[in-house]
Request: fold
Amino acid sequence: MPRPLKLLLVAGARPNFMKVAPVLRAIAESPSVFEHVLVHTGQHYDEGMSDVFFSDLGIPTPDEHLEVGSGSHAQQTARIMSTFEPVLLKEKPDCVLVFGDVNSTIACAIVAKKLGHRVAHVEAGLRSGDMTMPEEVNRIVTDAISDYLFVTEESGVTNLLREGKNKDCIHHVGHVMIDNLMYELGRIQHMDPASLNSSKLKPSGHQFGVVTLHRPSNVDSESTLRQIFSALNEISESLPLVFPVHPRTNACMKRHNIGVADQITLVEPLGYHEFLNLWKDATLVLTDSGGLQEETTALGIPCLTIRENTERPITVTEGTNTLVGTDRTRIVNAALALLKRDTTVSARARPALWDGRASYRILDILAKELDLSRRTTPL
Reply:
């Protein structure tokens, strides 16, 4: 019997953890086919933004923790590359799996490719068309050098083909983050609500909204941040809001002395279970997060995205997402319009292949492709 295929999975920031967890669960079901090495780059080093997610999602202790911490994009990317290289030289995996679009994604993909390893990009092909977004640069470069491109929605296939990628490298598999959402939602539903502190944040018997905000383009600019909070303050007069505040956003709010209405409850960042328990019952979600656009679509919850563009167009065309930009009037008008009508979203099908099985499809493809490569590569 051939040895198990060794997969090295890279997690660097909070959005990655939700995508890594279901793949690890699927790998555990096939121990004769795969073994894995989990690398945490430490791109998010704050316990509230990182370690608590590992605990909530049942992710095992990483085999390697690079502890790169914060810094400019160049500093952080360089540290990840220099500390990741020795791990690859030691482990010699059959394939390196990178997830999403954070700095860890591009840094580890580049190092792996230059050392001759196969690279799989999970959540490939997404494009916002906005090159001022660091994530857009990360996506494009990672896709350009990856051997296996695992796509969440048809727009990703279209984007990759337009950019000249070989169609045989592109695999529309669905979305591992939705795998994780469905799995964890099942766990939440079997928990005692009183055991979750976020249950206390929901106004008893009343509607409420949830806010997340973290993108530099939104929070670093004082004028933009004031526009957004002016809108949130007005919306809160009609719908109380709960706002888990990202550390970057919190620092900017303090620096610019942003005033917050009494009807907005500010809380520390929440772990995965606490946050899911909160937003799953929201009347409305306001966010600049890419992942939350998709998760709200999967559960049919209205979402207003505080951005001018999205790399996840299926959330708009087939989902519950609306792009409202950062203009105060647009944000307020969209929110109040939703509140004036019945915001209950009628039953609808999730986007294609968002069925909780994406992780298994990825592993099926890798098992075939990597085994074939192993059999045909001369010793």
In short: The chain has a mean pLDDT of 92. Residues 73-91 form the longest helix (19 residues).
